[in-house]
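Per your request, structure below.
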C-alpha cells in the first residue's frame, strides 16, 4: 500500500478511483409491491440521505422487470444497477438484456461475472470480459465479480484464480475505463459463511496490488458473501475493503440500511 496516497480508511477516498459503495443484489427475489415498500422505507430513512450526501454510493440491483418500480425513487439517494448484461449491443438473444437497455431503464451500474452467472450460465472469463467492455461502452459502471470456490481455496489457488479472472478483464478494457471489482468467495455466497476480515483483506490486497501494477491507478474493491448488519462494520473497517456487494441482507430495507450505516460515514 502506498500510504502517502492512501487514507487509512477507504470512506470517500480523496482519490476519485476509490469510493465507498454498498450495492444490493436482489437476485431473483421481489415483487412490485415489496419493491415499492422497500423504496419508500429507504427514501424516508435519514441514514440513507446522510450516507449518500457524504459520498457513499448506494446501488440497488433488482431483477430487470422491477427496475421501473425503483426508477422514480432513484438518482438522489441511491442508484440502479442491472444484475447482468449481454456482451452484444443487440441481436437474437432471447431472454437477454443489453447494457444500453439497462441505461434506458435508468441504470448506472451492472453486475457482471457473478459466480451464479459463471456457474449456472457457464459464463467464461472471456465472456465476463466482453460483458465488462459492453457495459463500459454503454456508459455503465460494471461491478465485476471474482472469487474462488471452496476447492480452489483448499488447494491454495485463491490468488491464481482471482488474478486470472481480473487479468482477462484488464486485457479487454483500456486503462482509463474504470470499473468496480467485487471479491466474492463462492463458498461465502448465500451460505452464512462469511470470510474473516483477514481472509477478505488479504485477497483485496492481492487484487489491489495487481491492479495498481497493471493500470497505475487505484480501484474500488467491494467484498461480497454473507455480509449482514452484524459483520459489516468489521469488514468495512479494513483499509482495503471499500464497500460491500450484499445479497440476502439487501432484500429488507432495515438490514440493508444497517449495512449502509456500518460504513461509518
Ligand atoms: P449473499 O450474496 O450476501 O446472500 O451471500 C452475495 C452475492 O451473491 O452478491
Amino acid at each position: 500500500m502506498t500510504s502517502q496516497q492512501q487514507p487509512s480508511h477507504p470512506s470517500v477516498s480523496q482519490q476519485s478511483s476509490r469510493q465507498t459503495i454498498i450495492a444490493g443484489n436482489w437476485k431473483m427475489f421481489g415483487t412490485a409491491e415489496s419493491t415499492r415498500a422497500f423504496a419508500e422505507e429507504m427514501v424516508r430513512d435519514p441514514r440513507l440521505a446522510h450516507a449518500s450526501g457524504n459520498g457513499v454510493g448506494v446501488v440497488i440491483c433488482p431483477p430487470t422487470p422491477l427496475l421501473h418500480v425503483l426508477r422514480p425513487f432513484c438518482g438522489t439517494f441511491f442508484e440502479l444497477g442491472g444484475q447482468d448484461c449481454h456482451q452484444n449491443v443487440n441481436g437474437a438473444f432471447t431472454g437477454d438484456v443489453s447494457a444500453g437497455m439497462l441505461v434506458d431503464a435508468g441504470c448506472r451500474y451492472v453486475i457482471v461475472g457473478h459466480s451464479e452467472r459463471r456457474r449456472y450460465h457457464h459464463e467464461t472469463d472471456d465472456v465476463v470480459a466482453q460483458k465488462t467492455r459492453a457495459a463500459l461502452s454503454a456508459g455503465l459502471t460494471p461491478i465485476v465479480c471474482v472469487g474462488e470456490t471452496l476447492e480452489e481455496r483448499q488447494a491454495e489457488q485463491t490468488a491464481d484464480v482471482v488474478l486470472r479472472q481480473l487479468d482477462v478483464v484488464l486485457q479487454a478494457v483500456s486503462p482509463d475505463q474504470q470499473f468496480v471489482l467485487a471479491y466474492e468467495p463462492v463458498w461465502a455466497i448465500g451460505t452464512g459463511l462469511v470470510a474473516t476480515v483477514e481472509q477478505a483483506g488479504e485477497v483485496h490486497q492481492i487484487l489491489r496490488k495487481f491492479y495498481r501494477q497493471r493500470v497505475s491507478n487505484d480501484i474500488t474493491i467491494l467484498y461480497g458473501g454473507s455480509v449482514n448488519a452484524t459483520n459489516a462494520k468489521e469488514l468495512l473497517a479494513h483499509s482495503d475493503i471499500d464497500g460491500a456487494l450484499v445479497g440476502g441482507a439487501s432484500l429488507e430495507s432495515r438490514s440493508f440500511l444497517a449495512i449502509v450505516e456500518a460504513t461509518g460515514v
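The radius of gyration is 17 Å.

Regards,
D.
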